[in-house]
Amino acid sequence: MSNASIEPAQAVHATRIGLGVALGLIASLTFATSGTFARPLLSAGWTPGAAVFWRVALAAVLLLPVGLWVMRGRLREVVAEWRTIVAFGALAVATAQLMYFAAVSRMSVSVALLIEYLAPVALVLLAWVRSRHAPSRLVIAGTLTSLAGLVLVLDLTGASVDPLGVLFGLLAMVGAAAYFLLGARPTRLHALALPAFGLPVGAVVLGLAVLLGALPYSAPLVDVQLMGAAVPWWVPLSVVVVAATVLAYAFGVAGIALMGERLASFVSLSEVLFAALIAAIVLGEVPAPIQLLGGLLIVAGVVLVRISSGRAPAGLPTLPDELEAAGATPPTAGPGSTDRH
Fold first, then answer.
1. Burial of 283 (0-12, 13-18, 19+ CB in 10 A)
2. Fewest C-beta in 10 Å: which of 140, 232, 259, 339?
């Protein structure tokens, strides 16, 4: 194969990765709005379960028509991928969000978020088990560097740990890892189809939890305080539904399909930085210098993982991003593929 044919392929791969990272950063930014804009609802008497249920249910109503439109004439393909869709809704949506809120109810937000964001480490270990090949030094260094930065950003000083809360946090981590894995799984679905059909599944799971009494529910429809002013309850809820759910899942899954779940899991760590910035603007919570240092470490970790993605040895990788790095081609198009039927 000539260098002339290799260079265009490398350029296309780099473009895909760059677009994937951009979409991933947008997803992180929109995901990061959820905590800040959900706080007024929680302060007004909403339970976490109620906030999560309506967040997912309303987002499903908005995104499902989009999914039906992009998959028009191809609903058989949707049915064929029902296992992936159900897994996404049950794990990446319902489990990740519900278990995170359950963890927050028993421990500090910082500790719960840190446990959930162990998902990148879980994915690295999964790749190790599946390929039976130890991660490269750069991957290990990137993992440790990003997690060290995350600890500094979260500022865990004085945090207490509850055993059951840790269990909930680990289950949230499973949901987060499933989000990256399922988003990168090769399918013939449109990039928007997975969240469009997965969110209704998540809403059903959460709704059943409410009906069975497993999820405490209270949602008083009263004015709430936002940025020093009284606003209708639906104002912050709209931000949580449209930005933190519809746009976040849509951009997030599309980004994962382009860059792979391993790199996406590290890019998503930027959500913590965005959340800190949004909280500073909306709530007046300014990050401490040690948190800014942590942000630099997170970026450094992402760079190390990105460098390693381009050095994966052929014949060993099994995960989507590693297949691309080795020059292999998955058997089917992923959610973000332009191959539409």
1. middle
2. 339
The first and second tokens of residue 59, run together, are: 């987002």
pLDDT single digits (tens) 90-138: 999 999 988 877 776 677 666 677 777 777 777 777 777 787 777 788 8
**2 exposure class (CB count in 10 Å sphere: 0-12, 13-18, 19+):** exposed
Q: How far is CA 134 from CA 129, 131, 137, 301, 316, in A?
A: 8, 8, 9, 18, 10
Q: Which two tokens stand for residue 175?
A: 């949901």
Do residues 255 and 15 lie in contact, with contact meaning Cβ atoms separated by under 8 Å?
no
**pLDDT score for 157:** 60
Give me the residues paired with residue 224 across strands. 231
| 304 occurs within a structural domain | yes
| Residues 6+ positions from 68 with CB-CB distance below 8 Å | 196
Single out the residue of 201, 198, 334, 170 nearest to residue 261, CA to CA: 334
Assigned domain for 6 exists: no
Residue 191 clears pLDDT 60, i.e. is over it: yes
Number of compact structural domains in the chain: 1
Confirm whether pTM is higher than 0.70. yes
Under 8 Å between Cβ of 294 and 150 = yes
With respect to residue 319, please indicate whether it lies within any of the assigned structural domains.
Answer: yes
Q: Which amino acid appears at position 120 of this protein? A: P
Spatial distance between the Cα atoms of 289 and 295, rounded to a whole number of angstroms: 10
Q: What is the pLDDT of residues 224-263, one digit of tens each?
A: 998 888 999 999 999 999 999 999 988 988 888 888 777 7
Q: What is the distance between the alpha carbons of residues 326 and 99, in angstroms, rounded to a whole number?
A: 36
Token duo for residue 75: 């609903």
**Cα–Cα distance between 31 and 19 in angstroms, integer?**
18
Show the CA angle centred on residue 261, arms to residues 255 and 264, nearest 5°.
Answer: 55
Domain assignment present for residue 43? The answer is: yes
Per residue in 296-306, pLDDT (tens digit) is: 887 787 777 76
Domain that residue 194 falls in: 12-221+229-323
Q: What angle do CA 123, 129, 130 make, to 5 degrees?
A: 85
Q: What is the pLDDT of residue 66?
A: 92
Cα–Cα dist 316/307, whole Å: 17
